[in-house]
């Protein structure tokens, strides 16, 4: 028996999950770390023509340096018009990137992304509302750097992750008033009213909506005709994929109203990304018909040694690492010291709070070299006398620390207070 045959009979040891810091350390030491290849496909059917998407697979952290590449994929599902979706598509990425400090390494860049995404979403919302238009949009925004995936979302366009072994994980949270009790409580506590459509004075019909405006969502970009308690602050989740890579399915609610996450993933396993996107849309159409705009992006993240999309699994895996909650993930980590790289997903960050002060944090860079204070949202320098800390309370409460950054300019502070129900975002007219 040849040595090759003997080697083939030996079970291959499960490769250890390489920590993010180790991979980045190799990069900084100049070791060769091959990034996975990105294959993607897109498909859509229009009912109202309000879905837009963004595909940018060739972004660079450092201009001119191809080793700092990352990819961006996003879906914007507009409502009450297309202006907000178009504006977000054209401006959100730039706003996110401008909120990341210059001259930092990859590890610091990845750690800064969650906060920069919050800043970018809020800044995009403020700028669009200044245009005086009333349309709004969901936003599901995905940044891929190597095997690290960061997803920020408002609304009900969803992103799921399918890994080898058949574990399907949800990387977003649906901000629908009908299904999200925490968001209903937040909206009503901030001054909004939640109820069903009541056109004839009888029992309410349809899904729960926020009044005024009648929006079914609790978070979005735009929607000037609805109260500011409909916030643009995104849920953000950052994960590191296993060494076997994975598949992302990013789609508007036209898909998710017809298919569950598991159904969508299962319907296209074993197919290349371009055909997979078409098949997901076709399956949604077959299941429900064309009742809404239906858009789907399929993104395969394929490490250099894996060039074939994994086939449909024939049996249930022994260990399924779930991303539906930190407790599940932590319990798996505690039960074994070494996880197989196949099917194991490492959660790096998750936060969904609608409180801006909690999302910006105290270590946000807030002072410039010229001793001016920089607004954490709009990035405009201002004298200390004009800046207000996000930690300043309305009164001298024990929790108020007005001397600590980050700081906001007057306009962004008014936006923050309006989102928290502390003041109206626009002057009210009384007769």
TrEMBL record:
Key words of the record: Hydrolase, Magnesium, Manganese, Metal-binding, Protein phosphatase
Reported cofactor(s): Mg(2+); Mn(2+)
Catalytic activity reported: O-phospho-L-threonyl-[protein] + H2O = L-threonyl-[protein] + phosphate; O-phospho-L-seryl-[protein] + H2O = L-seryl-[protein] + phosphate
Listed SMART domains: PP2C_SIG (SM00331), PP2Cc (SM00332)
Every PPM-type phosphatase domain range: 32-301
Transmembrane helix among keywords: no
Top-rank EC class of the record's enzyme: hydrolase
InterPro entries: PP2C (IPR015655), PPM-type-like_dom_sf (IPR036457), PPM-type_phosphatase-like_dom (IPR001932)
This enzyme's EC code(s): 3.1.3.16
GO MF term list: metal ion binding; protein serine/threonine phosphatase activity
Gene3D superfamilies: PPM-type phosphatase domain
UniProt key word Membrane: no
CDD domains named among the record's database cross-references: PP2Cc
Family: Belongs to the PP2C family.
Name of the protein this chain belongs to: protein-serine/threonine phosphatase
């Amino acid at each position: 028996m040849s040595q090759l045959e003997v080697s083939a009979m030996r079970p291959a040891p499960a490769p250890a999950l390489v920590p993010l810091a180790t991979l980045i350390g190799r990069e900084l030491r100049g070791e060769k770390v091959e990034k996975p290849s990105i294959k993607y496909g897109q498909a859509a059917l229009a009912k109202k023509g309000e879905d837009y998407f963004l595909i940018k697979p060739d972004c660079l952290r450092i201009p001119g340096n191809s080793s700092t590449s990352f990819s961006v994929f996003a879906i914007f599902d507009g409502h009450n018009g297309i202006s907000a979706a178009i504006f977000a598509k054209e401006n959100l990425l730039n706003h996110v990137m401008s909120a990341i400090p210059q001259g930092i390494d990859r590890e610091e860049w990845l750690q800064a992304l969650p906060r920069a995404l919050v800043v970018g979403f809020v800044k995009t919302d403020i700028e669009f509302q200044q245009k005086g238009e009333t349309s709004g949009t969901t936003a599901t925004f995905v940044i891929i750097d190597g095997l690290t995936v960061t997803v920020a979302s408002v609304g009900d366009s969803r992103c799921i992750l399918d890994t080898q072994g058949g574990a399907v994980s949800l990387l977003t949270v649906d901000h629908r008033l009908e299904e999200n009790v925490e968001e209903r409580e937040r909206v009503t506590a901030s001054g909004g009213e939640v109820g069903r459509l009541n056109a004839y004075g009888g029992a309410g019909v349809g899904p729960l909506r926020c009044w005024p405006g009648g929006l079914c969502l609790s978070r979005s970009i735009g929607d000037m005709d609805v109260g500011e308690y409909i916030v643009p602050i995104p849920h953000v989740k950052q994960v590191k994929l296993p060494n076997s890579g994975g598949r992302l399915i990013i789609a508007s609610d036209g898909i998710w109203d017809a298919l569950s996450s598991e159904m969508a993933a299962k319907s296209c396993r074993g197919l290349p990304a371009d055909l997979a996107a078409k098949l997901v849309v076709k399956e949604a159409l077959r299941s429900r018909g064309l009742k809404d705009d239906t858009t789907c992006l399929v993104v395969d993240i394929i490490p250099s040694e894996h060039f074939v999309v994994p086939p449909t699994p024939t049996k249930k895996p022994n260990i399924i690492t779930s991303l539906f909650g930190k407790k599940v993930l932590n319990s798996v980590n505690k039960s074994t010291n070494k996880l197989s790289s196949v099917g194991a997903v490492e959660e790096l960050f998750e936060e969904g709070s609608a409180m801006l002060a909690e999302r910006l944090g105290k270590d946000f860079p807030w002072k410039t070299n010229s001793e001016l204070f920089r607004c954490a949202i709009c990035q405009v320098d201002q004298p200390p006398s004009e800046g207000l800390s996000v930690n300043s309370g309305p009164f001298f409460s024990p929790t108020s620390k007005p001397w600590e950054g980050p700081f906001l300019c007057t306009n962004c502070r008014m936006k923050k207070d309006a989102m928290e129900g502390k003041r109206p975002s626009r002057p009210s007219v009384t007769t």
